[in-house]
Design brief:
The strands form two sheets. Strands 1-2 form a two-stranded antiparallel ribbon. A two-stranded antiparallel ribbon has the order 3-4. It is mainly alpha-helical.
């Protein structure tokens, strides 16, 4: 019986930690230093993830936005749905930002944990890259969102421009005549499906990559790195709990006039599936089934809101992205001022739109945000240790957000829901 991927990754973390502890950073066999092997395979895995960034983000956004044109009620439903997704995603980001600023998991006894996590770039060098990223840089971020050369922007890692271009491209696809729009939609849907499969294929090698990345950190620092990472994991888990158990229930109670706990019970199979698969896209059929049969939302609403949500609504992912970037900045000893934190919020909000609903796709978005504020992209390697557990938790929150939106939009459209009949 083949182990499921998340168990493979969990085993890889344990074996990587043991291997790194046994070999250290100097042990060798036949002249080959084990640390160099860890470095090679870890870097190879990170490069494979980076390779997917542009086509994955582009195709995901174009297909999601262009799909809005499939409903006769596009204006009304689309406006309500996107407004809900934007508000709840922003709320999740701010919860994560507040908690990570309050707890400061990237510091130990007031000192940055850069050396403990074996982050190689010096604090002074990182600070120099981030120095210019203040409130005034919001203007520069907005300018980069409209690049003069979209290909050059993609090649240089300025992916905000790619995101905005794809949003516009998808929007104007909906304005084309059917004969022109259909082949474009088929093409980009095909690209998106290919990129999802490529990402899934790369993730098959995640146990090897995670083994190497964990072994590299432990070989350099021992098990000291576990403390800050566990604290960071706790902060993210607390933020997800606040969003899932306070923010969304308040909206369900206040706007949809539903009992939040009964609602969660009705969609619990979808939440559990999301937790076990870490994929909102894979969970979509179960989500739609339970929203229609248990909650009473019409197929018209479900078929529009839920597939769109699986593409663009990533409450838990956006919270994780923001918290991760702040944690990495703290670990380097870099204090991000209010303006730079605004950039993190703004970029997290935009990139969460383009995160595919498949496991570990948020790491791609984190790389974009790190680049936007001048932090080393390579630092995402430290997140792999507990990423799978957090991926499962944040995916459940993403799906709960999708379900909540469908129920609220249905109520605003005047539909009668299951709770009304009890």
């Amino acid at each position: 019986m083949k182990l499921q991927l998340h168990w493979q990754i969990a085993l890889a973390i344990l074996l990587g930690g043991l291997s790194g502890w046994l070999t250290g950073d100097s042990a060798s066999l036949f002249g080959i230093v084990f640390y160099d092997l860890y470095e090679f395979f870890g870097t190879l895995f990170l490069n494979a993830l980076k390779m997917l960034i542009v086509p994955l983000i582009a195709s995901s956004i174009i297909v999601g936005v262009a799909g809005l044109g499939s409903s006769a009620h596009i204006g009304r439903l689309g406006g309500k749905t996107l407004a809900f997704y934007a508000v709840t995603t922003l709320a999740a980001i701010l919860v994560g930002l507040a908690l990570v600023n309050l707890v400061r998991p990237g510091e130990l006894d007031g000192e940055p944990v850069r050396d403990i996590l074996a982050l190689e770039m010096g604090a002074a060098e990182v600070s120099e890259q981030v120095t210019d990223k203040g409130a005034g840089d919001i203007v520069a971020v907005l300018l980069r969102a409209v690049p003069s050369n979209i290909v050059a922007a993609a090649a240089e890692g300025q992916l905000l421009g790619v995101i905005v271009f794809c949003l516009l491209f998808g929007f104007f696809m909906t304005r084309l005549e059917h004969d022109f729009a259909e082949p474009l939609m088929s093409f980009w849907t095909g690209v998106f499906q290919v990129m999802m499969r490529m990402t899934e294929w790369v993730m098959l090698f995640a146990p090897i990559g995670v083994f190497a990345l964990v072994a590299r950190v432990v070989a350099r620092t021992g098990f000291d790195a576990a403390g800050p990472l566990l604290l960071f994991t706790g902060v993210v888990a607390l933020g997800l709990a606040v969003h899932a158990l306070i923010t969304l229930p308040l909206l369900l109670k206040g706007v949809a006039r539903l009992n939040p706990w009964r609602f969660m019970q009705n969609v619990s199979p979808a939440l559990l599936t999301a937790f076990s698969t870490a994929s909102s896209s894979a969970t979509l059929p179960i989500t739609m089934e339970h929203m229609e049969k248990k909650v009473g939302v019409s197929n018209k609403i479900c078929s529009f809101v839920l597939p769109l949500g699986a593409t663009v609504n990533m409450n838990g992912t956006a919270l994780y992205e923001c918290a991760s970037v702040m944690f990495i900045a703290q670990a380097y000893g870099v204090e991000l001022d209010f303006g730079t934190q605004l950039i993190v919020v703004f970029t997290a909000l935009l990139t969460s739109i383009g995160v595919a609903g498949i496991p570990a796709a948020s790491l791609v978005a984190i790389a974009i945000i790190l680049a936007a504020v001048g932090l080393p992209v390579e630092a995402i390697a430290v997140l792999f240790v507990f990423d799978r557990v957090l991926d499962m938790a944040r995916t459940s929150v993403n799906v709960l957000g999708d379900c909540s939106c469908a129920a609220i939009v249905a109520r605003l459209e005047g539909e009668t829901l299951a709770d009304d009949e009890q």
